[in-house]
Amino acid sequence: MKKTFISLSVFCLIAAGCTVQNQSNTTIKNQTPGCEQISLAQDTDYKNTYYQIGGEETNISGILKANPKQTQPNSLMRNLPYNVGGVNLYLLANLDTYIGKKVIIEGKLNKFELEGQNLTEIWPNTLCVQN
Fold first, then answer.
1. Same structural domain, 14 and 50
2. In the chain, at which residue ranges do the beta strands (DSSP E only) sit?
3. CATH assignment of the domain containing 77
4. How much is the pTM?
5. Torsion of CA 39, 21, 44, 78, to 10 degrees
6. 16 and 67 belong to one structural domain
7. Widest CA span of the chain, in angstroms?
């Protein structure tokens, strides 16, 4: 077990925004040099829901983009303001200052059907803004 943990730790030092569990179940986050890491799970209700939903954490990297603002109601009842690599971010935080910057989002991928459409969104936990 110790050898596996050390191997994962070395791998995570190379990978951006990687999270591993050590033997005492403490989360260790390794960030990329020159990367500003911001916690997005600040709200208690969001945190509780985040940890209750299934799935493993994953990383998505790319340019943070703003989704077009909806001017009229639609049947999806989804108005998510941002996406990274075409995956919508489900969050309440204002990330306008990071639009156009290269980011790494760590969160849980959520795939579901709504009104006959298959949707994919990520519930972000942390945002890593690369300089």
1. no
2. 18-21, 27-30, 35-39, 57-66, 82-84, 87-89, 102-114, 117-130
3. 2.40.50
4. 0.68
5. 70
6. no
7. 56
Number of domains into which the chain is organized: 2
Name the β-bridge partners of 30: 18
Q: Tell me how far apart the alpha carbons of residues 89 and 81 are, in angstroms, rounded to a whole number.
A: 8
Token readout for 130 is: 């690369």
The pLDDT score that the predictor gives to residue 59 is 92
Write the pLDDT tens digit of every residue in 95-119: 999 999 999 999 999 888 888 888 8
Confidence of residue 27 (pLDDT cuts 50, 70, 90): very low
Domain of residue 2, residue span: 1-30
Residue 86 and residue 60 share a domain: yes
Q: First-to-last CA distance in the chain?
A: 35
